[in-house]
């Protein structure tokens, strides 16, 4: 497609200097954080090289574009495919020069040669990678444990640039127990640049721990991410570590949070570290005795991610600005994973509202707090609907409608928060008329279910009744006069965000668009509503990133008299263009 446009492009585009093209290509290839290796960046690079000879030469001559290797996956012993991966690997290594490289390597157990059998193809692949160990920067290994033991010995002391190491033990044999009598693997022991370690046990049943198998330079690690599965091995070993440089800690477990917080508290006391980012995700609920103690020992935390907090945890987060030692005075982001949306253990919105008001509503108003700056910038509500029950086993999670029920419950929570905080610090806001509420709810349902999905099915494309329903909805929205009405409901219901999605879709991605011009009409609606949506913003606004992520975002410093934020910045949050809530990866 790009090659077609190139043939008809004006001379001004054809005359762009190669150095400028290389900078543009870098933005295109590295426009997202794909970890050690990302297939999307490799596909973009391949696409750029296919446009023209000029673009190809510019890309080949820019070494940094080739430092992120294509993900390497060996799922079987097909030598032809393995040789193809080796050729692709040689290509990237040659074109990346001497720069540090990032990659992910996945080897399934069935592809690993059995004892006494040699498979030169897979060994050749490993040999190419291991010979470049002095260039390793960010690497991820999802390989059998025997692979480290048999092939990684000689890299010890030869990985000076290794800064990030991720290991997934999913392909380790689940029947092998940790054995202290077995020697530790010291291949990564001397890595002077290592600052980030990620350990994931996605198999959920593995009893072999990273900490018992690998000798790592823990004293210099600044960021640690751990997915502990359902066993206690990881947390038990975490109790033995000392991490004085640790600043960023993420722990995910599928068991009770009590022991998890106890282990984290012990780690902080033992290490004397000062955390700046803490993320603790557990799928069960219970009292958190250690949580307030962790907060007291971590005043430098700016980002806190917690799952389904009870009233005790929320109460611990309430800040008293008059206190000489307020709780988490620098916290900018509070992200809450609500595992039990709509259930008996769902978030207490009144308690959450008290936390928010303590960090926003009183600052700068009393004599004791006058002039204090507000640290809190965003509260993110994240609905974990995909982890509900055992949908992986029965495959009925979509048909059950649980994801939509959670979305509706999330909207109710948003409405409660909006009611509690929409006064904007004393500014009276008119009651939103009921017809406007009904229209906003109808618009959200129609846009989410039929016209905002990333994947458009045949049912969407050929269902004329749905297209006409959307046409009727757009006609209703076009008749709305926001000059006299309060427009906030169109923001916190996500209508502006959804219209922006429709407007930005490519041709053919919006069902019924050729007949009813939905994309252009959505753009015109946004242009018409923009001044009113911005007008009704007070100290904060709402942003959305899909149906399960909502962000309550404050305008930095707006509570302090005389400060403001540009209208375009507010608009970018409302439409989701500049909203980047912290999405927690699955490691």
Quick summary:
This protein has 587 residues and is α/β, with parallel strands linked by helices. The protein has helices at residues 2-7, 11-14, 18-29, 39-49, 53-60, 79-95, 120-131, 145-151, 210-213, 233-238, 257-271, 291-296, 311-316, 349-360, 391-394, 397-400, 402-421, 434-451, 458-461, 464-478, 488-492, 495-504, 513-516, 518-535, 567-574, and strands at residues 72-74, 101-107, 136-142, 164-168, 196-200, 223-227, 248-253, 277-282, 303-307, 333-338, 378-383, 540-544, 549-554.
Structure description:
This protein is α/β, with parallel strands linked by helices. Among the domains are: 242-364 and 371-429 and 547-587; 441-537, no CATH class. The protein has 25 helices and 13 strands. It has helices spanning 2-7, 11-14, 18-29, 39-49, 53-60, 79-95, 120-131, 145-151, 210-213, 233-238, 257-271, 291-296, 311-316, 349-360, 391-394, 397-400, 402-421, 434-451, 458-461, 464-478, 488-492, 495-504, 513-516, 518-535, 567-574; strands at residues 72-74, 101-107, 136-142, 164-168, 196-200, 223-227, 248-253, 277-282, 303-307, 333-338, 378-383, 540-544, 549-554. A 13-stranded mixed β-sheet has the order 1-2-3-4-5-6-7-8-9-10-11-13-12. Helix 12 links the parallel strand 8 and strand 9. It is globular, with a radius of gyration of 27 Å. The chain starts with a helix and ends in a 13-residue tail after the last helix. Residues 174-178, 364-371, 385-404, 424-430 and 557-564 have low confidence and may be disordered.
